[in-house]
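Here is an idea for our session: we take a single protein and study its fold together. Once you have written the record down, we can walk along the chain together.
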Amino acid sequence: MSFVITIGRQYGSGGRFIARKLAEMLNVNFYDNELLTTAATQSGMSKTILDNYDEKKDGFFSGVVPSTFGADMSLSQKVFLAQFEAIKMIADRESCVIVGRCADYVLRENKNVVNVFITAPIEDRVKRAVKYYNLDEKKAKETIIKMDKKRASYYNFYSDKKWGKADSYNLTIDSNIGIDEACEVIKSYVEKKLKLNI
């Protein structure tokens, strides 16, 4: 049986590191920016447009995802729809780990999905942003606040759930337990929830 693990994350929490390591541990594909290539191929939109409008919102959205592009749709909405279709196609064909892009909402009717949110205290996220993103402490904190707001805005706009709220996910983990330890917790949870041995 195939399965999908979706990873939402606060900026600087190490969520992307955890997702990639988890995919390696489970020997499945990892999708983050790779989704843009798949979406570009499927939709016929250029990768540049997808890059520029990735995880951005604008205009009015009804909460009901349309099945085809409309002339009155914004570029952000077209990019969301292209990613929506790419996520569904990938989930139908293989087990994988997907980062962000409302994948948990897109796959909400799929019973073989586990939705995880990665968090960490702000001071630890600042340290990680300074170390990995070469930002000074002040800039790191400003970037964290800005990126969290952007992710929340995008998620809340396109889904009927609230970004970062525990009841929007199956599992929420503080990454301070360590990257490897977080992966082990997720793996164990997935095995128990989906009754798998992976």
